[in-house]
User: Which sequence fits this backbone?
């Protein structure tokens, strides 16, 4: 029996996670679920966004299904107890350095893409993003220049081990897909990117079957809208991956369609699975959230943490069939509520 920790969090997190759980339950697998408090919801009850009980559950669980954290009412809190610290803390605590973000155009959704349908139709890529380094975790400071101007700095740093392990995940992923890997950096300007490129070239010797391309991040952003079908697997650092994957989400229709997996290894013995979107306070509590990203995250959970490939595919095919059958939430130009979209996926599962 596998234990799934459900950390639903804030805003639309509980709404979309509920639908993903219903889909997992409908598969009739040997799973148990345990709920934990996280984010603003946890802060309200315990004065901390990631209480020790939640951390303990995360360690005990075979996998974590995560909703979203973030609450505008808490924007004024000190940084260390803001809801968003919960997800950063979980990534750090569980060593979840590899973020896998598939972006695939589902047939029927072409008109929801920000791109022309004939360009959008070809999108089928995976972005592999480093998750525990870079400017997000480097030293930060605020101060004043010697002339009294306010100044701030965020340190961008990587060591070779941190780079090598994420790059290997990229190569492994590419080796299992169409054997094309694009490594995205800014080696013409950044020292960290030059080290990144050096390590990528060293590891490439172990993967002769994978065709490697290096691309500067500004060019990658341009190519993602010009010819996204040319990408298969992209591997990149934390900051660049954060931006490129949100860009990719608009290319496939809606941020409400994109799942992600955060792993501590290529085949994650521990994994956290979440939609790439946030808590969407603007639509929370209105039944407008698209649950597909959360449901597809449950499929990634089955594939990466439980090695249940058949059930993962069943879920992905059910989402595909629901979309092909015309099921659409508001973000996709339709009128279905969150629960009705969940129903449509469940109906397609049967
Ligand atoms: P967001 O992803 O929450 O929302 C961006 C836009 O997309 C909004 O207009 C929202 O309504 C829409 N949207 C998002 N998910 C949707 C869905 N499933 N269906 C339909 N529409 C959807 O990003 P934001 O507004 O920048 O951030 C809101 C809060 O979420 C902030 O507090 C932020 O820090 C937090 N956040 C958390 C995570 C996380 O938990 N991993 C990730 C990103 C942002």
Assistant:
């Amino acid at each position: 029996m596998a234990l799934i920790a459900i950390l639903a969090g804030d805003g639309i997190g509980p709404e979309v996670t509920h639908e993903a759980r219903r889909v997992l339950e409908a598969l009739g697998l040997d799973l148990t679920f345990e709920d934990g408090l996280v984010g603003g919801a946890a802060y309200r009850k315990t004065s901390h966004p990631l209480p020790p009980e939640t951390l303990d559950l995360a360690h005990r669980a075979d996998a974590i299904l995560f909703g979203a954290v973030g609450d505008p009412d808490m924007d004024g809190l000190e940084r260390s107890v803001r809801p968003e610290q919960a997800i950063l803390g979980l990534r750090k605590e569980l060593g979840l350095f590899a973020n896998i973000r598939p972006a695939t155009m589902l047939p029927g959704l072409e008109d929801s893409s920000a791109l022309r349908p004939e360009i959008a139709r070809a999108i089928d890529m995976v972005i592999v993003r480093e998750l525990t380094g870079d400017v997000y975790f480097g030293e930060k400071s605020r101060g004043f220049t010697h002339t009294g101007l306010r100044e701030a700095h965020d340190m961008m740093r990587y060591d070779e081990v941190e780079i090598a392990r994420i790059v290997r995940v990229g190569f492994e992923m590419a080796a299992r897909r169409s054997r094309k890997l694009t490594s995205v950096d800014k080696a013409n300007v950044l020292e960290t990117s030059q080290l990144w490129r050096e390590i990528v070239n060293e590891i490439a010797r172990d993967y002769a079957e994978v065709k490697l391309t290096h691309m500067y991040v500004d060019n990658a952003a341009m190519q993602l809208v010009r010819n996204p079908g040319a990408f298969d697997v992209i591997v990149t650092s934390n900051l660049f991956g954060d931006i490129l994957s949100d860009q990719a989400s608009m290319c496939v229709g809606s941020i409400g369609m994109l799942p992600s997996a955060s792993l501590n290894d290529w085949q994650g013995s521990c994994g956290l699975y979440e939609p790439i979107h946030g808590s969407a306070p603007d639509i929370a509590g209105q039944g407008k959230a698209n649950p597909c990203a959360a449901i597809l995250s449950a499929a990634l959970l089955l594939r990466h943490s439980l090695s249940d490939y058949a059930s993962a595919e069943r879920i992905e095919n059910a989402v595909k069939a629901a979309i092909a059958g015309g099921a659409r939430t508001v973000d996709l130009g339709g009128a279905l509520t969150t629960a009705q979209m969940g129903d449509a996926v469940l109906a397609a599962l049967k």
